Amino acid sequence: MLRQVYVNKTVLEAAKERISYIFDEFENIIVSISGGKDSTVLTHLALTEAHRRNRKIGLFFLDEEVVYESTIKQIEYLMNLYPENTIPLWLQIEFHLTNATSLTEGQLICWEAGKSKIWMRPKNPISIKHKPWDPAKETVRDKNKGFGFYDAIENFENSRYNTAFLVGLRATESPNRWRAVSKNPGYKNVYWCTKMKNGNVSFYPLYDWNFHDVWKYIYDNKLRYSKIYDFMWKKGMGLQEIRVSSLIHEKSFKALVELPEFEPKTYDKLLKRIKGISVGNLYGKDRALLRVQKLPKNYKNWREYRDFLLATYPDPEKKEIFVKRFAKHLDNDYVARQQCRQLVLNDYENNLPIDNKPDPREALIQKWRELL
Amino acid sequence: MIRIGLNNEEKQQVIDEYLQKKQLKKVFVFSYEKFPSQLKFPGIETEYIGYADIIMYKFFYRLLEEIDDDCLLVFDECMRTQNRSDLTYNCAHHYCNQTSRKIVFERFPFIDDYNDFMILLDLINKGKYKGKSFRGYFLNDEDIKVKPHRFTVSTIDIPISDLDRKRYEKKKESLFANLGNKDPDTIPRNLHIFAGDLKKPYIEPNKDYVARNSRFNLPNVITYKDVEQKDYIIIDFPHRRLDFNDFLKRTGMHDIIFLNSTLKVDLYYLNELRAWIERLGEFYAKASLC
C-alpha cells in the first residue's frame, strides 16, 4: 500500500520549490499537456515561474485527433495563458492509434494524409504538422504494430537534448506507475523524476498531490478547465470515474457512452471518421461485451470464449501477436478472461497487461469442498 | 469521540451532553440510507447526508468549503464495507480533516474482524492510524466508550433422515458439477437454502421465524428485510456478516436461536457466527481493560 507521510509544508509550496529547482537546473523545459486537470495545474505553475524569470518553456501536446472538443479548447487556452513565455509544441502528425471498438478497423491513423475531409477538425495554425525529428533516426517499438502513440512521444523526446520534461503524474492516481518511475533517483538526488536519453529527464512536480489539491488550485487561481468534468459531475459520476481522456483506445472507449450527450457534434464527426463508434456508444459499459466481465451465454467458460475470439480474429498479423503472447500464459479461466478482454479491445500492444496467476476461484472452490 | 453499542436514546443523550458544552455553527450527520439517523440537534442547523452521497461531487466540494472547526460531523452507523480504502471512507476522511469535532456511533466495533475498527479510528484521526493494523492500546488513545452487547446462540436440532443426507450430498455434488462460471459462494448459499427447506415441518405456527427469502409462504416466516424489533428463530442465515449484523441491529435480539438441520452447511454458518461472537467478546474484554 502506498503510504503518505505528512510534512510541515503544503503540496503547493513543495511543487513550487520543485519547479523552481528545475528552472535553476535546466535551460530547456517542456511541459507535457493533455488538457486534463492535472496538466492544467502543472502548466499554470510552470508558466508562472517562467513569467517570473522572463523565460520561455515549451508546451507539448500530442494531438490524437479523436479527442473531446473541450480538450482542444483547453489546449488553446493553455497555449495562450502566457504567450510571451510559451513555445507551442502542438504536434499534429500521422501515427497509429488502437481503436478498441472495431475488429475490422482496429487502428486509426490520426491526421492521415489524403483524408483531411474526414478529420475531426482542421489542423491548428500554430501546430507542428510534420515530424520534427530526423526520419533516418526514427525508432518504432514494433514494426508490426506501426508507428504508434508512444513512438511519437519517444521520438519527440529523443529529438531534444538536456531538457526537463514536466509531467502531471500523481502517485495516488497511478500507484503502480509511480512505484515504477520512482525507484531510483533520475537526476542527482531527485526521486520524483526519471532519467531519459540525451540528458533529458522527466519530472513529476505534482507527484504528491491529491485530486482535491488539484481542484483547489484551479479554483483559487480561477483557471479554466475542460467542460467535460462539469458534464460528468452533473451526471453524478463517482469521483474515480471522472477523467478526460482519449475516446477510442482500449482504456478510454467507455467515454463513448456519454459522448453524444456531452458533445453531440464530436460524436457525429467521430461516427464518420472511423468504424465501431456506435458499438462503443451502445456497449461501452456492457458487462458482457466491451467490458468483458460477464461471460456470453454461448460459452461454457472463458477459455472457450477466448479460443473462439482467437480463431475468428480478423487480422492475421495481430492474431499472431496474441497467439505468441498467450502461449506464455497459464491456461485457466482467470487468465482467459483477461485474454478475452485483450482480444475484444484489440489490445495487441499489451496495454492491459495480463495478471498471469493461478485462478483464485479454484482455492475458494477447494475451501467449500472441504467445509461442506 | 467513538461510541460503540448505543441505541438511539443513548446516542441522543451523548449528543445532548455534547451540545451543552460546545457552540456549533452546523452539524453534518452521515448515515446509511436503510438506517436513517434519528438524532436531533435542536436550534442548530443540521444537514443529514446519505452514505451513498458522501462520494458525490455535488456534496464533496460544497462540504469541503462549508465544514470548519465550528462544525460537528456525526457518523451514525456508517461502517458499511470492510474495505478500509473504500472511496466513501476516503471522501469522509477529507471532511474529517476540516474539523476536530467528530462523533462516531456504531452498534458493533467491527463488521467481521478487529481490523474493521481501524475504519472508525481513521474517521477520528486518519493521519495517525494510516496503514496500521488494530492494536488493543489504540483504544486508550482516543475518547472511546464501548457498551458491550453479549449474545448467546442455541439451536433447535431437527432430525434429518438418511435419505435427506443422501439428497444433501447429491445436491452438493450437483452444485459443484454445475458451478460453471458462477461465484463459488453460491454453493454454500444454495446448500443452506436446501437445508432450510428441510426445516419446514418443524416451523411452529405460534413462533416467529426469519428466512433468507419468502419461499415458505407462511405468515410467521418473514425475510430479513422485513424484520421488526422482536425475537425470531433463524431458519437460514444471510451469507454476508454485515447483513446479519443489520438484522441484530433492527431486532435488538441477543439470544439467537437457530433451527439447525445439523447438515455441514448449517454447522458452517453456525460456527462462523459463534466465532464472530467470540471475537466480539475478546474485543469487549480489551476495551474494558483500557
State the strand order across the main sheet of chain A: 3-2-1-6-8-7
- Largest sheet, strands/sense/barrel of chain A: 6 strands, mixed
End-to-end distance of chain A: 35 Å
N-to-C SSE series of chain A?
HEHEHEEEHEHEEHHHHHHHHH
Number of extended strands of chain B = 11
Instruction: Indicate the proportion of strand residues of chain B.
Output: 15-25%
Question: What is the overall silhouette of chain A?
Answer: globular
Q: What kind of oligomer do you see?
A: heterodimer
Overview of the structural elements:
The complex is a heterodimer of chains A (372) and B (290). By secondary structure, chain A is of the alpha/beta class. Chain A has 14 helices and eight strands. In chain A, the strands form two sheets. Chain A has a six-stranded mixed beta sheet with strand order 3-2-1-6-8-7, sandwiched between helices. Chain A has a two-stranded antiparallel ribbon with strand order 4-5. In chain A, strand 1 (28-32), helix 2 and strand 2 (57-62) form a beta-alpha-beta unit. In chain A, helix 1 packs across helix 2 (37-53) and helix 8 (255-262) packs across helix 9 (264-273). The radius of gyration of chain A is 22 Å and the shape is globular. The two termini of chain A are 35 Å apart. The model of chain A has no long low-confidence stretch (mean pLDDT 90). Chain B is an alpha/beta fold and 290 residues long. Chain B folds into two domains: 2-147, Rossmann fold (3-Layer(aba) Sandwich), CATH 3.40.50.10810; 152-287, no CATH class. Chain B is built from nine helices and eleven strands. Chain B starts with a strand and ends with a helix. The mean pLDDT of chain B is 94. Chains A and B meet through helix 14 of A and helix 2, helix 3, helix 7 and helix 9 of B.
Features:
heterodimer; A: 372 residues; alpha/beta; 6-stranded mixed β-sheet; two-stranded antiparallel sheet; 14 helices; globular; B: 290 residues; Rossmann fold; 2 domains; 6-stranded parallel β-sheet; 5-stranded parallel β-sheet; 9 helices; 11 strands; 40% helix; elongated
